[in-house]
């Protein structure tokens, strides 16, 4: 199996769910398909989805909900 680390495309605040009342998009161990949303990055009230570009299994997040992230910072690992 191959592990791939996905990085933040832009700086901002990372969110694992669409709102505080809703469940996270994906948890560790969940299957991931191409195009699945795995989180959101917010910059000045504008939300950019973090979308899977490969299929596999989500094995780990490198950041917590509401963490500040920089462009290029590792967000999560996928195993295919």
From TrEMBL:
A GO biological process held by the record: fatty acid biosynthetic process
Q: Which domain of life is it from?
A: Bacteria
Keywords carried by this UniProt record: Biotin, Fatty acid biosynthesis, Fatty acid metabolism, Lipid biosynthesis, Lipid metabolism
- What metabolic or biological pathway is this protein involved in? Lipid metabolism; fatty acid biosynthesis
The segments labelled Disordered in the record are 1-28
| PROSITE patterns to which the protein is assigned, alphabetical | BIOTINYL_LIPOYL
Q: Which Pfam families match?
A: Biotin_lipoyl
Q: Which GO terms describe its molecular function?
A: acetyl-CoA carboxylase activity
Output a single Gene Ontology CC term carried by this record. Answer: acetyl-CoA carboxylase complex
What range(s) does the Lipoyl-binding domain occupy? 1-79
Give the protein's biological function. Answer: This protein is a component of the acetyl coenzyme A carboxylase complex; first, biotin carboxylase catalyzes the carboxylation of the carrier protein and then the transcarboxylase transfers the carboxyl group to form malonyl-CoA.
Name used for this protein in its record: Biotin carboxyl carrier protein of acetyl-CoA carboxylase
Give the source species.
Jiella pacifica
What taxonomic ancestry is recorded? Answer: Bacteria, Pseudomonadati, Pseudomonadota, Alphaproteobacteria, Hyphomicrobiales
């Amino acid at each position: 199996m191959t592990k791939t680390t996905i990085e933040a495309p832009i700086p901002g605040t990372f969110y694992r769910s669409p709102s505080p009342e809703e469940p996270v998009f994906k948890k560790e161990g969940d299957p991931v398909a191409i195009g699945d949303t795995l989180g959101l990055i917010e910059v000045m009230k504008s939300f950019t989805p973090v979308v899977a570009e490969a299929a596999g299994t989500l094995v780990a997040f490198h950041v917590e909900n509401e963490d500040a992230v920089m462009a290029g910072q590792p967000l999560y690992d996928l195993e295919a």
